[in-house]
Design goal:
The protein is an all-alpha fold. The chain is built from ten helices and no strands. It is 73% helix and 0% strand. Helix 3 packs antiparallel against helix 7 (181-206).
């Protein structure tokens, strides 16, 4: 994720022109510009196009296309925002779990506190790796023995396995009378909430905009841009070419940016900073459980160091 000063318009705009998104966008704009040039030359120099199409038709179609793009951007940003909300819930539930566990266990049971703290932190890290389809599922996990690493690496859904291990840990403490029935029930509910968050995040990642709708929007954008010369070539002449390219830049830009933020759990710089969320949980959990632990800080890139 890129951190920036929203009030610094000049720097933001200048750095946008170095972004990967812009490179993709300009490729499409240049292709549309090339096709528009061919159409314009054909209509002016060969066909001698004299048909006057009322501009109102293009204004009406532009309004319809704008409504579709509003829906598109709203849907994409809604998924990004919902992904952020789910990870905020994960952070809050993790802290609440640690608070209840801190109160339920005495300070003398350090081994259980360390094991519980590790598992809660590792759950968030494992969910991060799971959502990003990471090949190495154990990178960043705390306190793993060699056998555990091998076991975890072979799990298809590692977060589910970790939730089961946490339930087993709580059941063992409850059986040993180290936890009261009330604390045991409350902690189990919090663990169920963590599992629900994983399912919600998977639903966000696995349900993009339906293919037919997405294709329809893209087709509508291209047809609208390529139809503009037929209506404005009489008044603009060859100036219709830059007019079409500018229009396609704005319209296609919204579509490409929507695609960029539709999956908020990736590792691109417009996605959510999941690793930073993990570090926040790690720091807070060990502090709540009053355990000595050094959190290794992430390397923070300067603003715009990673192009977006």
């Amino acid at each position: 994720m890129i951190y920036y000063d929203s009030r610094d318009w000049a720097s933001n705009i200048l750095h946008f022109f170095t972004s990967n998104v812009l490179k993709v966008l300009l490729t499409y704009v240049l292709v549309i510009g090339l096709v528009t040039t061919m159409i314009t030359v054909l209509l002016i120099d060969i066909v001698h196009w004299k048909v006057n199409i009322p501009p109102g038709i293009f204004y009406l179609h532009g309004i319809m296309l704008a409504l579709l793009l509003i829906f598109r951007t709203h849907t994409a940003f809604g998924k990004w925002k919902e992904g952020s909300r789910q990870w905020a819930s994960l952070i809050n539930h993790s802290r609440n779990l640690a608070q209840v566990f801190h109160l339920a266990l005495g300070a003398e049971d350090r081994q259980s506190r360390e094991r519980f703290g590790q598992q809660i932190v590792n759950y968030g890290i494992a969910l991060n790796r799971h959502l990003r389809n990471a090949t190495d599922k154990t990178t960043g996990l705390l306190g793993l023995e060699r056998e555990e690493k091998q076991l975890y690496q072979n799990k298809h859904h590692l977060p589910n396995h970790m939730i089961r291990q946490l339930h087993q840990l709580l059941n063992g403490l409850w059986t040993a009378k180290a936890l009261s029935a009330d604390h045991h029930q409350l902690l189990n509910k919090k663990l169920a909430a963590l599992s629900d968050i994983a399912g919600n995040c998977e639903q966000i990642r696995q349900t993009p905009l339906p293919f037919s709708f997405s294709t329809f929007i893209k087709t509508g954008i291209i047809l609208y841009c390529l139809a503009i010369p037929f209506g404005f070539i009489g008044s603009l002449g060859y100036l219709v070419i830059p007019a079409v390219m500018f229009t396609s830049f704005l319209i296609l830009g919204l579509e490409i940016l929507s695609e960029e933020i539709e999956d908020p759990f990736g590792a691109e710089c417009n996605d959510l900073p999941l690793s930073e969320f993990n570090r926040s949980v790690e720091r807070d959990i060990y502090e709540i459980l009053e355990l000595d632990h050094k959190v290794m800080p992430l390397e923070q890139p300067k603003a715009y160091e990673k192009r977006y």
